[in-house]
Amino acid sequence: MASSSSMLLLAALLASISWQAIASDPSPLQDFCVADMHSPVRVNGFVCKNPMEVNADDFFKAAALDKPRVTNKVGSNVTLINVMQIAGLNTLGISIARIDYAPLGQNPPHTHPRATEILTVLEGTLYVGFVTSNQENKFLSKVLNKGDVFVFPVGLIHFQFNPNPYKPAVAIAALSSQNPGAITIANAVFGSKPAISDDVLAKAFHVEKNTIDYLQAQFWENNQY
Ligand SMILES: *[C@@H]1O[C@H](CO)[C@@H](O)[C@H](O)[C@H]1NC(C)=O
């Protein structure tokens, strides 16, 4: 005898399962679908280039992640290789990034709306973490050393920080989308164009409006992705 609450639970479970399926990159229906960036046809992703004209270079980018990058104001630089850099990634649901961190640099709190991320440290040390969704907003964090691997689940706010004041750090991240997208929290909230009303943000952040005005007046620089 199924109670109405267990039926509701089942319905919620089914709804969450179908949402997960809709929210990930579509699975390929052929070996590959190399993006044709010149097609005027609009689809979810890119239309396929003629498979007869596909060659190894469609799946290749020379020296894409070979060297350290100049880091930005918060001390990081993300070099993302997504479908825009390698057209063969179209429909395959994967991309890769190299992240360079200056001493005491960080890749500030951000989310990827379309991807889970798995990160490994190549050099140095990183203090990393993510926060679960409402209501708990539980913070899960870890200090990673060379060779350690950590996962940031899709959509959750996460960051990496290099706690070493003398040495840079480097990480490689794989992401489960051909185009993971990124929303850097501070930049999106305080650096939007046009600005969000300071009445809204003052109330949301429980601060005076002049604190919001100060934050909105800063220069908000995004990493490449
Ligand atoms: C990342 O590094 C590249 C190459 O060093 C540089 O051209 C680019 O401006 C850097 N990006 C940021 C956000 O600093």
Automatic annotation (TrEMBL):
<dbReference type="Pfam" id="PF00190">
    <property type="entry name" value="Cupin_1"/>
</dbReference>
<keyword id="KW-1015">Disulfide bond</keyword>
<keyword id="KW-0964">Secreted</keyword>
<feature type="binding site">
    <location>
        <position position="117"/>
    </location>
    <ligand>
        <name>Mn(2+)</name>
    </ligand>
</feature>
<feature type="signal peptide">
    <location>
        <begin position="1"/>
        <end position="23"/>
    </location>
</feature>
<feature type="binding site">
    <location>
        <position position="112"/>
    </location>
    <ligand>
        <name>oxalate</name>
    </ligand>
</feature>
<dbReference type="GO" id="GO:0048046">
    <property type="term" value="C:apoplast"/>
</dbReference>
<feature type="domain" description="Cupin type-1">
    <location>
        <begin position="60"/>
        <end position="213"/>
    </location>
</feature>
<dbReference type="GO" id="GO:0030145">
    <property type="term" value="F:manganese ion binding"/>
</dbReference>
<keyword id="KW-0052">Apoplast</keyword>
<keyword id="KW-0464">Manganese</keyword>
<keyword id="KW-0479">Metal-binding</keyword>
<dbReference type="InterPro" id="IPR001929">
    <property type="entry name" value="Germin"/>
</dbReference>
<dbReference type="InterPro" id="IPR014710">
    <property type="entry name" value="RmlC-like_jellyroll"/>
</dbReference>
<feature type="disulfide bond">
    <location>
        <begin position="33"/>
        <end position="48"/>
    </location>
</feature>
<comment type="similarity">
    <text>Belongs to the germin family.</text>
</comment>
<feature type="binding site">
    <location>
        <position position="158"/>
    </location>
    <ligand>
        <name>Mn(2+)</name>
    </ligand>
</feature>
<feature type="binding site">
    <location>
        <position position="112"/>
    </location>
    <ligand>
        <name>Mn(2+)</name>
    </ligand>
</feature>
<keyword id="KW-0134">Cell wall</keyword>
<keyword id="KW-0732">Signal</keyword>
<dbReference type="InterPro" id="IPR011051">
    <property type="entry name" value="RmlC_Cupin_sf"/>
</dbReference>
<dbReference type="InterPro" id="IPR006045">
    <property type="entry name" value="Cupin_1"/>
</dbReference>
<protein>
    <recommendedName>
        <fullName>Germin-like protein</fullName>
    </recommendedName>
</protein>
<dbReference type="GO" id="GO:0005737">
    <property type="term" value="C:cytoplasm"/>
</dbReference>
<dbReference type="GO" id="GO:0050162">
    <property type="term" value="F:oxalate oxidase activity"/>
</dbReference>
<feature type="binding site">
    <location>
        <position position="107"/>
    </location>
    <ligand>
        <name>oxalate</name>
    </ligand>
</feature>
<keyword id="KW-0560">Oxidoreductase</keyword>
<feature type="binding site">
    <location>
        <position position="117"/>
    </location>
    <ligand>
        <name>oxalate</name>
    </ligand>
</feature>
<comment type="function">
    <text>Produces developmental and stress-related release of hydrogen peroxide in the apoplast. May play an important role in several aspects of plant growth and defense mechanisms.</text>
</comment>
<feature type="binding site">
    <location>
        <position position="110"/>
    </location>
    <ligand>
        <name>Mn(2+)</name>
    </ligand>
</feature>
<keyword id="KW-0963">Cytoplasm</keyword>
<dbReference type="InterPro" id="IPR019780">
    <property type="entry name" value="Germin_Mn-BS"/>
</dbReference>
